[in-house]
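Hi C.,

You asked whether I'd gotten around to modeling the 59-residue construct. I have! Everything is below, sequence then structure, no commentary in between.
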Amino acid sequence: MALHLTGLCAEDLAEVVDCLLLGAEHTASRELSARRRHIAHRIGDALDQLPTPDDPASR
């Protein structure tokens, strides 16, 4: 639903995940680092659940 509402594609969100993980590595704040990792993993998990174009269920 978020993809539909924002007009982003899965590749765009994958890039966001990469940026969050990179940001988590380069912050001195443990809390901020943990929060960025948590958000990145939740988005990544959601992306993993999206049907792929070759998935018969997506047709």
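If it helps when you're writing up: The chain has a mean pLDDT of 85.

Thanks,
B.
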